[in-house]
Amino acid sequence: MPFDLLIKNANLPDDRIGMDIAVTGGKIVAVESDITGQAGRVIDAGGRLVTPPFIDIHFHMDATLSLGTPRLNQSGTLLEGIQLWGELKPLLDKQAIIERALRYCDLAVAQGLLAVRSHVDVCDDRLVGVEALLEVRDLVRDYLDLQLVAFPQDGFYRSPTAAGNLVRALDMGVEVVGGIPHFERTMEDGRLSVRALCEIAAERGLMVDLHCDETDDPLSRHIETLAFETQRLGLQGRVAGSHLTSMHSMDNYYASKLLALIAEAEIHCVPNPLANIVLQGRHDVYPKRRGMMRVPELMALGVNVAFGQDSCMDPWYSFGSADMLEVAHMAVHTGHMTSRDAVKSCFRAITENPARVFGLGGYGLAPGCNADFVLLEARDTIEAIRLKANRLSVVRRGKVIAETAPRMAMLSLEGRPSTVEPWRYAPVEARSS
Q1: Among the options 184, 214, 229, 352, which is catalytic?
Q2: Is 2.30.40.10 the CATH classification of the domain at 3-52+364-432?
Q3: Where in the chain is the domain with CATH 3.20.20.140?
Q4: Are 29 and 360 in contact (CB under 8 A)?
Q5: What element of type H or E holds 21?
Q6: What's phi and psi for 168, nearest 5 deg?
Q7: pLDDT value at position 428?
Q8: Which of 180, 233, 257, 367 stands 20 to 30 A from 384 (CA)?
Q9: Cα separation of the two ends of the chain
Q10: 175 part of the active site
């Protein structure tokens, strides 16, 4: 039988080169060299990288593309961002949220980003954001997987109606329990909120994803409580701790204990490099802290680390472009992760690692997996991060849903080539290392 789609001469993230990928009925049916047969469409990868789609495991889609409404964050700080979101919430309109979210999803698809976990604020009693993103989830399901987290932005206990609203949101179909223990009024309230939220998840058979210790205070240790509650309630593998920036400021002795507890509890760790390095360390003079969790150390212990984008043109972060390669690129630099293996691990942190957090079925480049993948204008994963490579073709269930022209500069220099293609500058020696 003819194939629906055949990708020829592709390099894969596991360093195999010259591979073909055959697709039928929205599924990958073969990954091997020199596949023969007719196909409805053939794409010659030409020695470029084909990867499973990118995944953003931490995002705020109810706020995305709202930059400037009702005003700009003048200081650029986390606290002013929270204050600004409080000013914006009463003005939120369901249709406006839907339109912004759909525009963002268009951008995401163009960037090969086909799965997003979005936190949605439940501290607005109208739950307008929840209603809007539930509708968006249905509208985009054919081309993007959207998973929602019930997030009490103003504090599970600190906001008077948050606890009830969170349960309402879960009853409406939100899939993940969220929280923000370090924003409660006291450390004790934060500890109790972690306990309560994990119990809600355990009772309902849901996953947990808490904004946890997003502060420069080394004594903010709610991740320790999260590790304990995960084990007490048997939630191993279903819990994510997002941000964990206080870990950057902890003394090494305590951190050595904490990292082992995280690994033992099988907690997923979600740094957000773009936002974390600009929002943390704001009270420092010099030297300045950068507010990233201890990514290399966590990875060395076998902890599943997955990077999130967090924000895109919203009250907290005025930049962003739905580009997970930009996220990985920043993580490489802030974490001093420039060895060949470390860079490759950062690529996994925007692909296969978040797929595990998400619980995304059918993900990968093997027979039987969904035919979801991206052709990048780069030879391998290291080059993809270096170049923040173009997404030449984005495929969903075997159908090409986005295409970008190759990047090429035309030169007018006597005695020099007439064109420059950045992806061809990859050092040959690096590919075999």
Answers
A1: 214
A2: yes
A3: 54-358
A4: no
A5: strand 19-24
A6: -60, -45
A7: 75
A8: 367
A9: 39
A10: no
